[in-house]
Amino acid sequence: MAKSFRLMPLVALLLFAGSVFAQEAPEWTKPFPPYRITGNIYYVGSQGLASYLITTPQGNILINSSLEKSVPLIRQSVEQLGFRFSDTKILLISHAHWDHCAGSAAVKELTGAKYMVMDADAPEIESGGKGNFQYGDSPTSRYQPTKVDRVLHDGDEVRLGGTVLVAHLTPGHTKGTTTWTMKVADGGKTYNVVIVGSPNVNEGYKLVNNTLYPQIASDYERMFRVLKSLPCDIFLGAHGNYYGMEEKSARMKEGGPNPFIDPDGYKSYVEEREQAFHTELAKQKGEAR
Ligand SMILES: [Zn+2]
Predict the structure, then answer these.
(1) What pLDDT is stored for residue 22 in this prediction?
(2) How far is the CA of 99 from the centre of ligand 1 (A)?
(3) How far is the CA of 59 from the centre of ligand 1 (A)?
(4) What is the whole-number distance in angstroms between the Cα of residue 156 and the centre of ligand 1?
(5) Do residues 274 and 224 lie in contact, with contact meaning Cβ atoms separated by under 8 Å?
(6) Cα(228) to centroid of ligand 1, in Å?
(7) Distance of CA 257 to CAs 186, 263, 264, Å?
(8) Residue 17, CA distances (Å) to 48, 139, 144 in order
(9) Which residue, 12, 87, 125, 137, has most beta carbons within 10 Å?
(10) What is the pLDDT along the chain (289 residues), one digit of tens a residue?
(11) 239: Cβ–Cβ under 8 A, 6 or more apart, which residues?
(12) What's 203-271 look like in SS3?
Protein backbone atom coordinates (compact mmCIF):
# COMPACT_ATOMS: atom_id res chain seq x y z
CA MET A 1 0.00 0.00 0.00
CA ALA A 2 2.70 2.43 1.09
CA LYS A 3 4.47 1.83 -2.21
CA SER A 4 1.45 2.72 -4.34
CA PHE A 5 0.92 5.85 -2.29
CA ARG A 6 4.44 6.93 -3.05
CA LEU A 7 3.68 6.45 -6.74
CA MET A 8 0.70 8.80 -6.60
CA PRO A 9 2.54 12.05 -7.24
CA LEU A 10 4.25 10.51 -10.28
CA VAL A 11 0.92 9.34 -11.72
CA ALA A 12 -0.56 12.77 -11.12
CA LEU A 13 2.42 14.35 -12.83
CA LEU A 14 2.09 12.07 -15.86
CA LEU A 15 -1.61 12.80 -16.17
CA PHE A 16 -0.89 16.51 -15.95
CA ALA A 17 1.93 16.26 -18.47
CA GLY A 18 -0.35 14.36 -20.83
CA SER A 19 -2.71 17.28 -21.10
CA VAL A 20 -0.11 20.00 -21.45
CA PHE A 21 2.68 18.44 -23.46
CA ALA A 22 2.94 16.80 -26.82
CA GLN A 23 1.06 13.58 -27.32
CA GLU A 24 0.90 11.33 -30.30
CA ALA A 25 -2.50 10.06 -31.37
CA PRO A 26 -2.54 6.52 -32.82
CA GLU A 27 -4.17 7.65 -36.09
CA TRP A 28 -1.25 10.02 -36.74
CA THR A 29 0.99 7.13 -37.75
CA LYS A 30 -1.69 4.91 -39.29
CA PRO A 31 -1.09 4.64 -43.06
CA PHE A 32 -3.90 5.82 -45.34
CA PRO A 33 -4.22 4.89 -49.04
CA PRO A 34 -3.17 7.90 -51.16
CA TYR A 35 -5.67 9.31 -53.65
CA ARG A 36 -6.32 12.23 -55.97
CA ILE A 37 -8.54 14.84 -54.30
CA THR A 38 -9.09 17.02 -57.36
CA GLY A 39 -7.06 18.37 -60.29
CA ASN A 40 -3.37 18.22 -59.40
CA ILE A 41 -3.93 17.84 -55.62
CA TYR A 42 -3.33 14.47 -53.97
CA TYR A 43 -3.71 13.20 -50.41
CA VAL A 44 -0.43 11.62 -49.24
CA GLY A 45 -0.88 11.83 -45.45
CA SER A 46 -1.69 9.30 -42.74
CA GLN A 47 -5.14 8.74 -41.29
CA GLY A 48 -4.72 11.58 -38.82
CA LEU A 49 -2.05 13.88 -40.25
CA ALA A 50 -2.82 15.47 -43.59
CA SER A 51 -0.09 15.91 -46.21
CA TYR A 52 -0.81 17.12 -49.73
CA LEU A 53 1.13 16.67 -52.94
CA ILE A 54 0.52 19.27 -55.62
CA THR A 55 1.98 18.14 -58.91
CA THR A 56 3.19 20.43 -61.69
CA PRO A 57 5.16 19.94 -64.92
CA GLN A 58 8.16 21.53 -63.15
CA GLY A 59 8.16 19.34 -60.06
CA ASN A 60 5.92 18.99 -57.05
CA ILE A 61 4.96 20.84 -53.88
CA LEU A 62 4.53 18.98 -50.58
CA ILE A 63 2.47 20.49 -47.78
CA ASN A 64 3.24 19.11 -44.28
CA SER A 65 6.20 16.80 -43.62
CA SER A 66 4.41 15.70 -40.41
CA LEU A 67 6.32 13.56 -37.87
CA GLU A 68 9.83 12.30 -38.55
CA LYS A 69 8.41 8.79 -38.82
CA SER A 70 5.76 10.02 -41.28
CA VAL A 71 8.34 10.72 -43.98
CA PRO A 72 8.70 7.09 -45.18
CA LEU A 73 4.88 6.82 -45.30
CA ILE A 74 4.56 10.04 -47.29
CA ARG A 75 7.27 8.89 -49.66
CA GLN A 76 5.51 5.55 -50.15
CA SER A 77 2.22 7.33 -50.86
CA VAL A 78 3.85 9.64 -53.42
CA GLU A 79 5.47 6.68 -55.19
CA GLN A 80 2.30 4.61 -55.04
CA LEU A 81 0.57 7.39 -56.99
CA GLY A 82 3.29 7.11 -59.64
CA PHE A 83 5.28 10.24 -58.73
CA ARG A 84 8.90 10.55 -57.68
CA PHE A 85 9.62 11.79 -54.17
CA SER A 86 12.81 13.35 -55.51
CA ASP A 87 10.65 15.62 -57.72
CA THR A 88 9.50 17.47 -54.58
CA LYS A 89 10.82 20.99 -55.21
CA ILE A 90 9.02 22.98 -52.51
CA LEU A 91 8.08 22.05 -48.94
CA LEU A 92 5.39 24.02 -47.08
CA ILE A 93 3.69 23.56 -43.70
CA SER A 94 0.40 24.40 -41.99
CA HIS A 95 2.10 25.59 -38.80
CA ALA A 96 5.19 25.11 -36.64
CA HIS A 97 4.00 22.21 -34.49
CA TRP A 98 5.94 18.95 -34.50
CA ASP A 99 3.02 16.95 -35.95
CA HIS A 100 3.20 19.01 -39.16
CA CYS A 101 6.89 19.90 -39.43
CA ALA A 102 9.15 17.44 -37.55
CA GLY A 103 9.83 15.50 -40.76
CA SER A 104 10.98 18.59 -42.70
CA ALA A 105 14.72 18.06 -42.17
CA ALA A 106 14.40 14.53 -43.59
CA VAL A 107 12.27 15.67 -46.56
CA LYS A 108 14.82 18.38 -47.39
CA GLU A 109 17.67 15.90 -47.18
CA LEU A 110 15.91 13.29 -49.36
CA THR A 111 14.57 15.68 -52.01
CA GLY A 112 16.53 18.94 -51.83
CA ALA A 113 13.19 20.78 -51.65
CA LYS A 114 13.19 24.48 -50.74
CA TYR A 115 11.51 25.01 -47.38
CA MET A 116 9.19 28.03 -47.26
CA VAL A 117 7.72 29.11 -43.91
CA MET A 118 5.63 32.05 -42.67
CA ASP A 119 7.74 34.76 -40.98
CA ALA A 120 6.28 34.38 -37.48
CA ASP A 121 6.82 30.59 -37.48
CA ALA A 122 10.30 30.64 -39.06
CA PRO A 123 12.38 31.23 -35.87
CA GLU A 124 10.73 28.22 -34.20
CA ILE A 125 11.36 26.01 -37.23
CA GLU A 126 15.02 27.01 -37.26
CA SER A 127 15.38 26.35 -33.52
CA GLY A 128 13.53 23.00 -33.58
CA GLY A 129 10.43 24.14 -31.69
CA LYS A 130 12.30 26.08 -29.03
CA GLY A 131 10.48 29.21 -27.96
CA ASN A 132 7.01 27.95 -28.79
CA PHE A 133 4.69 29.81 -26.41
CA GLN A 134 2.94 26.61 -25.31
CA TYR A 135 5.29 23.68 -25.89
CA GLY A 136 8.72 25.33 -25.99
CA ASP A 137 10.03 23.43 -22.97
CA SER A 138 8.46 20.06 -23.75
CA PRO A 139 11.09 17.63 -25.07
CA THR A 140 8.47 15.57 -26.92
CA SER A 141 7.39 18.52 -29.02
CA ARG A 142 10.90 19.46 -30.17
CA TYR A 143 12.28 18.46 -33.56
CA GLN A 144 15.41 18.81 -35.61
CA PRO A 145 16.16 22.50 -36.27
CA THR A 146 15.63 23.05 -39.99
CA LYS A 147 16.85 25.86 -42.22
CA VAL A 148 14.12 27.92 -43.85
CA ASP A 149 15.07 28.74 -47.46
CA ARG A 150 12.41 31.39 -48.00
CA VAL A 151 10.62 33.35 -45.29
CA LEU A 152 7.03 34.06 -46.33
CA HIS A 153 4.89 37.04 -45.49
CA ASP A 154 1.11 37.32 -45.41
CA GLY A 155 -0.23 37.20 -48.96
CA ASP A 156 2.98 35.89 -50.54
CA GLU A 157 2.67 33.60 -53.53
CA VAL A 158 4.47 30.32 -54.03
CA ARG A 159 4.68 29.53 -57.73
CA LEU A 160 5.74 26.36 -59.52
CA GLY A 161 4.90 25.04 -62.97
CA GLY A 162 1.72 27.09 -63.41
CA THR A 163 0.36 26.45 -59.91
CA VAL A 164 0.07 29.42 -57.55
CA LEU A 165 -0.41 28.92 -53.81
CA VAL A 166 -1.17 31.94 -51.62
CA ALA A 167 0.05 32.03 -47.98
CA HIS A 168 -2.52 33.60 -45.65
CA LEU A 169 -1.34 34.44 -42.14
CA THR A 170 -4.00 32.95 -39.85
CA PRO A 171 -2.35 33.23 -36.41
CA GLY A 172 -3.40 32.15 -32.92
CA HIS A 173 -2.80 28.41 -32.90
CA THR A 174 0.83 29.34 -33.62
CA LYS A 175 2.10 32.83 -34.31
CA GLY A 176 2.63 32.00 -37.99
CA THR A 177 -0.15 29.50 -38.73
CA THR A 178 -0.67 29.52 -42.47
CA THR A 179 -3.83 28.82 -44.45
CA TRP A 180 -3.03 27.94 -48.05
CA THR A 181 -5.30 28.76 -50.97
CA MET A 182 -5.05 27.93 -54.65
CA LYS A 183 -7.22 27.57 -57.70
CA VAL A 184 -7.58 24.13 -59.22
CA ALA A 185 -8.98 23.10 -62.58
CA ASP A 186 -11.00 19.91 -62.74
CA GLY A 187 -13.52 18.66 -65.27
CA GLY A 188 -13.60 21.98 -67.16
CA LYS A 189 -14.31 24.00 -64.00
CA THR A 190 -12.12 26.06 -61.68
CA TYR A 191 -12.44 25.70 -57.92
CA ASN A 192 -11.15 27.68 -54.94
CA VAL A 193 -9.18 25.44 -52.58
CA VAL A 194 -8.63 26.30 -48.89
CA ILE A 195 -6.22 24.29 -46.74
CA VAL A 196 -6.98 25.46 -43.19
CA GLY A 197 -3.85 25.91 -41.00
CA SER A 198 -5.66 25.35 -37.67
CA PRO A 199 -8.38 27.33 -35.91
CA ASN A 200 -8.09 25.31 -32.70
CA VAL A 201 -7.44 26.44 -29.15
CA ASN A 202 -5.38 23.58 -27.73
CA GLU A 203 -5.77 22.30 -24.21
CA GLY A 204 -3.80 24.50 -21.83
CA TYR A 205 -3.67 27.53 -24.17
CA LYS A 206 -3.83 30.80 -22.23
CA LEU A 207 -5.98 33.30 -24.12
CA VAL A 208 -5.84 35.85 -21.29
CA ASN A 209 -2.66 37.30 -19.73
CA ASN A 210 -0.40 35.18 -21.91
CA THR A 211 2.98 36.79 -21.34
CA LEU A 212 4.66 34.76 -24.10
CA TYR A 213 1.93 35.65 -26.63
CA PRO A 214 0.13 38.78 -25.40
CA GLN A 215 -1.89 39.31 -28.63
CA ILE A 216 -3.08 35.68 -28.86
CA ALA A 217 -6.81 36.46 -28.51
CA SER A 218 -6.79 39.26 -31.10
CA ASP A 219 -4.76 37.01 -33.41
CA TYR A 220 -7.47 34.31 -33.19
CA GLU A 221 -10.05 36.99 -34.00
CA ARG A 222 -8.01 38.11 -36.99
CA MET A 223 -7.66 34.48 -38.13
CA PHE A 224 -11.45 33.94 -38.08
CA ARG A 225 -11.94 37.15 -40.07
CA VAL A 226 -9.48 35.87 -42.69
CA LEU A 227 -11.03 32.37 -42.87
CA LYS A 228 -14.50 33.88 -43.31
CA SER A 229 -13.23 36.12 -46.13
CA LEU A 230 -11.76 33.29 -48.21
CA PRO A 231 -13.85 31.91 -51.06
CA CYS A 232 -13.92 28.13 -50.63
CA ASP A 233 -15.17 25.31 -52.82
CA ILE A 234 -12.70 22.55 -51.90
CA PHE A 235 -12.37 22.37 -48.11
CA LEU A 236 -9.11 20.84 -46.77
CA GLY A 237 -6.96 21.27 -43.63
CA ALA A 238 -3.96 20.24 -41.56
CA HIS A 239 -5.83 17.29 -40.02
CA GLY A 240 -8.41 15.20 -41.86
CA ASN A 241 -10.85 15.54 -38.97
CA TYR A 242 -11.29 19.26 -39.77
CA TYR A 243 -13.19 18.35 -42.93
CA GLY A 244 -14.30 14.72 -42.62
CA MET A 245 -11.47 13.38 -44.78
CA GLU A 246 -12.16 9.68 -44.22
CA GLU A 247 -15.88 9.88 -44.82
CA LYS A 248 -15.41 12.03 -47.93
CA SER A 249 -12.71 9.82 -49.42
CA ALA A 250 -14.99 6.80 -48.92
CA ARG A 251 -17.85 8.64 -50.64
CA MET A 252 -15.54 9.54 -53.52
CA LYS A 253 -15.22 5.86 -54.43
CA GLU A 254 -18.98 5.70 -54.98
CA GLY A 255 -18.74 8.21 -57.84
CA GLY A 256 -21.04 11.20 -58.23
CA PRO A 257 -20.07 14.78 -57.40
CA ASN A 258 -16.72 15.30 -55.69
CA PRO A 259 -17.46 15.25 -51.92
CA PHE A 260 -14.49 17.53 -51.23
CA ILE A 261 -16.45 20.35 -52.91
CA ASP A 262 -18.07 21.50 -49.69
CA PRO A 263 -18.51 25.28 -49.34
CA ASP A 264 -21.27 24.87 -46.74
CA GLY A 265 -19.17 22.44 -44.69
CA TYR A 266 -16.35 24.99 -44.68
CA LYS A 267 -18.64 27.80 -43.52
CA SER A 268 -20.20 25.81 -40.71
CA TYR A 269 -16.79 24.46 -39.59
CA VAL A 270 -15.35 27.97 -39.33
CA GLU A 271 -18.46 29.22 -37.49
CA GLU A 272 -18.39 26.31 -35.05
CA ARG A 273 -14.67 26.79 -34.32
CA GLU A 274 -15.17 30.53 -33.82
CA GLN A 275 -17.94 29.83 -31.30
CA ALA A 276 -15.68 27.37 -29.48
CA PHE A 277 -12.96 30.03 -29.34
CA HIS A 278 -15.35 32.66 -27.93
CA THR A 279 -16.70 30.20 -25.35
CA GLU A 280 -13.18 29.40 -24.16
CA LEU A 281 -12.19 33.09 -24.15
CA ALA A 282 -15.26 34.03 -22.08
CA LYS A 283 -14.50 31.22 -19.63
CA GLN A 284 -10.89 32.31 -19.22
CA LYS A 285 -11.89 35.96 -18.85
CA GLY A 286 -14.35 34.94 -16.11
CA GLU A 287 -11.64 32.99 -14.32
CA ALA A 288 -9.17 35.85 -14.68
CA ARG A 289 -11.60 38.33 -13.07
ZN1 LIG B 1 -0.94 22.37 -34.02
Answers:
(1) 58
(2) 7
(3) 28
(4) 22
(5) yes
(6) 20
(7) 12, 13, 15
(8) 22, 11, 22
(9) 125
(10) 334 444 444 444 444 443 345 578 899 999 999 999 999 999 999 999 999 999 999 999 999 999 999 999 999 999 999 999 999 999 999 999 999 999 999 999 999 999 999 999 999 999 999 989 999 878 889 999 999 999 999 999 999 999 999 999 999 999 999 999 999 999 999 999 999 999 999 999 999 999 999 999 999 999 999 999 999 999 999 999 999 999 999 999 888 899 999 999 999 999 999 999 999 999 999 987 6
(11) 48, 49, 50, 198
(12) CCCCCCCCCCCCCHHHHHHHHHHHHHHCCCCEEEECCHHHCCHHHHHHHHCCCCCCCCECHHHHHHHHH
Give me the pLDDT at residue 14, please.
Answer: 43
What is the Rg, in whole angstroms, of the alpha carbon atoms belonging to the chain? 19
**What's the pTM?**
0.92
Q: Could you tell me the sign of the dihedral formed by the alpha carbons of 159, 163, 165, 166, in that order?
A: positive
Query: What separation in Å is there between the alpha carbon of 273 and the centre of ligand 1?
Result: 14
Ligand 1 centroid–CA 5 distance in Å is: 36
Distance 199 CA to ligand 1 centre (A): 9
The CA 247 to ligand 1 mean position distance, Å, reads: 22
Distance in Å, CA 141 to ligand 1 centroid? 10
Report the sign of the C-alpha dihedral through residues 36, 113, 194, 224, in that order: positive
> 281 CA distance to ligand 1 centroid (A)?
18
Distance 69 CA to ligand 1 centre (A): 17
